[in-house]
Each structure stands twice: as C-alpha cells, then as structure tokens.
C-alpha cells in the first residue's frame, strides 16, 4: 500500500504563489516538481502541494481534497459569506495584505454609504459587498466583474467600485478615490472540516507548528 500523503493547496501563480512557497521552504519542506505542474512533492516528508487557482482553494479544502490550504481571507470570505471562518482558519500568515475598498470617481460628492444607495457598484466580491450594503442598511445594484473593475466607472458600467487595494496606485491612475474600508485581508492557512487521517496527524501537526514558527519569526 502506498504511504498516505498530506495535501496542501497553494496558488499556482499569482500574488500569493511565491510567498506561499517561501513559507513552505522556510518550514524545511523541500518542494520538487511532481508528475505535472499542478503537483509538487515534498521530497523530505510525505506531503504534496496541489497548485491551483486561488478561487479553487476554499472548496478543495472544504471538500477534504486537501487537508490544508493557503488563500487570501478575501477569497475565503467571498466563498463562505455565512460560515464562521474562525473554525476554518488555522492562522493568519502576515503576507498578501490588502484591503477591499469602496471607491468612487474623484468628482463624486461622497457623504457616506447613503451616497451609493440605488447606484451601480462593480466588484469581483458580490457576496462581501452585499453584506456590507446590508450592514449599512442600503441597497444598490451590484455589477459582477471578473477583473478590470477599476475601469467600470470610466466605461459607464458602474458609478462606484468595490475592489482590492494595496498601494492605491490603481485607484489613483483611474481617477478614483477610496471612501470606505469594506474588508481587511491577508493570506490565511485554512484546514479541512475532517481531522487528518491518523497516519498523517503527526505530519499535520508538524506543518502547522513550523508554519507558526516561520510566521512569527518573519513578523
Ligand atoms: O490566477 P488566480 O485566480 O489564482 O489569481 P487571481 O488573479 O485571482 O489573484 P491574484 O494573484 O491577483 O491575487 C491573489 C490574492 O493576493 C488576492 O486574493 C488577495 O488576497 C492578495 N492581494 C494582495 C491582492 C492585492 N494585494 C492586490 N493589490 N490581489 C489583487 N490586487 C490587485 C487589485 O485587484 C487591483 O487590481 O492589485 C490592484 C491594486 O493594487 P494597487 O497596489 O495599485 O493598490
Ligand atoms: Zn483568482
């Protein structure tokens, strides 16, 4: 019988990919390319890395396809808007920090959330935005876009946007100004609902312990 292997879902390429791999390497896990680009093997421990799109990570982990996953809190919250995420999150990882912000064109006379009531707001995060609108007691039309959200006002697709911001440059070059903080985000380590099988419990604990050590030492 083949030895069971712990599976960790990580972003294949993108903003979290490199830092996720650094965390894994920093924890003493030596990653080598496996059978294909989607699978990396840890050569010194019974662990595989499933390299996927970040959007697939919450579902993979929730379905027990992977025991652990590294994903942005924003993506997790959008996938599971009604779940208690503290039950899923093992730890915050301190990288991939960004904020989801409501932004309006520079000339927009923004007085508070009521200013966007009845307006059209473009976003890739409809569930998070819906919850924010509801918390603020207003309704607005949500225009869901996969990307390029920042051009929506200029294209007259929407009056405002709700998008991720890190440096603020993208908003600035598109003549938009941030007006509300909707969500703070960073990469998080998440776990599957089922406990790992007994054979993998020690390796699971080791990974979590080492990730914690690396995260604390890198601040
Ligand atoms: O291909 P895949 O689906 O895996 O990746 P993706 O294209 O969906 O995501 P990716 O790689 O762009 O981002 C992965 C995660 O990084 C996000 O889910 C966030 O948790 C985190 N992150 C951190 C960011 C940013 N910072 C960020 N600035 N994700 C996106 N942005 C974008 C933002 O959408 C906007 O277009 O950067 C632009 C704004 O940046 P500034 O610096 O101009 O403000
Ligand atoms: Zn994605």
From TrEMBL:
Molecular functions (GO terms): ATP binding; ATP phosphoribosyltransferase activity; magnesium ion binding
Keyword Amino-acid biosynthesis applies: yes
Included stretch of the parent chain: 1 to 219 of 292
Family, similarity comment: Belongs to the ATP phosphoribosyltransferase family. Long subfamily.
Activity control summary: Feedback inhibited by histidine.
EC number of the protein: 2.4.2.17
Domain ATP phosphoribosyltransferase catalytic: 53-203
Entry function: Catalyzes the condensation of ATP and 5-phosphoribose 1-diphosphate to form N'-(5'-phosphoribosyl)-ATP (PR-ATP). Has a crucial role in the pathway because the rate of histidine biosynthesis seems to be controlled primarily by regulation of HisG enzymatic activity.
Pathway per the UniProt entry: Amino-acid biosynthesis; L-histidine biosynthesis; L-histidine from 5-phospho-alpha-D-ribose 1-diphosphate: step 1/9
Subcellular location, record wording: Cytoplasm
Keywords, sorted A to Z: Amino-acid biosynthesis, ATP-binding, Cytoplasm, Glycosyltransferase, Histidine biosynthesis, Magnesium, Metal-binding, Nucleotide-binding, Transferase
GO annotation, biological process: L-histidine biosynthetic process
Cofactor: Mg(2+)
GO cellular component, one term: cytoplasm
The reaction(s) this protein catalyses: 1-(5-phospho-beta-D-ribosyl)-ATP + diphosphate = 5-phospho-alpha-D-ribose 1-diphosphate + ATP
Originating species: Asticcacaulis biprosthecium C19
Spans through the membrane: none
Name by which UniProt lists this protein: ATP phosphoribosyltransferase
Primary location class: cytoplasm
UniProt key word Cell inner membrane: no
Gene this chain is encoded by: hisG
């Amino acid at each position: 019988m083949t030895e069971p292997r712990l599976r960790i879902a990580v972003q294949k390429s993108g903003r979290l990919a490199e830092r996720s791999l650094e965390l894994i390497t920093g924890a003493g896990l030596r990653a080598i390319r496996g059978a294909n680009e989607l699978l990396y093997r840890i050569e010194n421990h019974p662990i595989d890395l499933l390299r996927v799109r970040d959007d697939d990570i919450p579902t993979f982990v929730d379905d027990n396809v992977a025991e652990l996953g590294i994903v942005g809190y924003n993506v997790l919250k959008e996938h599971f808007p009604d779940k208690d995420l503290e039950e899923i999150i093992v730890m915050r990882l301190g990288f991939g920090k960004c904020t989801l912000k409501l932004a309006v064109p520079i000339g927009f006379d923004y007085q508070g959330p009521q200013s966007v009531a009845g307006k059209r707001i473009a976003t890739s995060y409809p569930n998070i935005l819906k919850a924010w609108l509801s918390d603020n007691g207003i309704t607005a039309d949500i225009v869901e876009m996969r990307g390029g959200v920042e051009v929506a006002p200029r294209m007259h697709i929407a009056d405002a946007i709700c998008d991720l911001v890190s440096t603020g440059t993208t908003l600035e070059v598109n003549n938009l100004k941030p007006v509300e903080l909707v969500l703070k985000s960073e990469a998080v380590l998440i776990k599957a609902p089922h406990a790992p099988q007994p054979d993998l419990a020690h390796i699971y604990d080791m990974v979590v312990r080492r990730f914690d050590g690396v995260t604390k030492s890198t601040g």
